[in-house]
Amino acid sequence: MTETTLETSARTRVDEKYVYFFGEGKAEGSGMMRDVLGGKGAGLHDMTNIGVPVPPGFTIVTEVCRWYHDHGRTLPPGSSRRSARRSRGSSA
After folding, report:
1. Pairing relation of β-strands 26-27 and 57-60?
2. Domains of the chain by residue range
3. Which CATH number describes the domain made up of 16-86?
4. CA 22 to CA 37: how far, in whole Å?
5. What is the pLDDT of residue 5?
6. How does pLDDT run across 39-64, given as a tens digit for each residue?
7. Would you tell me how many other CB atoms lie within 10 Å of the CB of residue 83?
8. Rounded Cα gap, residues 48 and 67, in angstroms
9. Which pLDDT band holds residue 23 (cuts at 50, 70, 90)?
10. Under 8 Å CB-to-CB from 54, ≥6 apart: which residues?
11. Which residues contact residue 77 at a Cβ distance below 8 angstroms, ignoring those fewer than 6 apart?
12. How far, in Å, CA of 86 to CA of 14, rounded?
């Protein structure tokens, strides 16, 4: 079996971002990140950035969504802890 990008990332990149937040006129992502956030996610971030009133929320990157479905509905190693810390404003 070949190693996925997330498996490589889990070992080599601790700064990998799995969740992007948006709301109150600010978004961590943009419409240019369609490959990372997916079409709907990129659209929500873009609308937020241009001032369209969008309810606050978050987008989980497409890579994590693929992992979740391909690995028996489990999250990549370390992703839930890293995302929880980031959502509270702490560094990973």
Report:
1. unpaired
2. 16-86
3. 3.30.1490.20
4. 12
5. 55
6. 999 999 999 999 999 999 999 999 99
7. 18
8. 27
9. very high
10. 22, 23, 44, 47, 48
11. 7, 10
12. 12
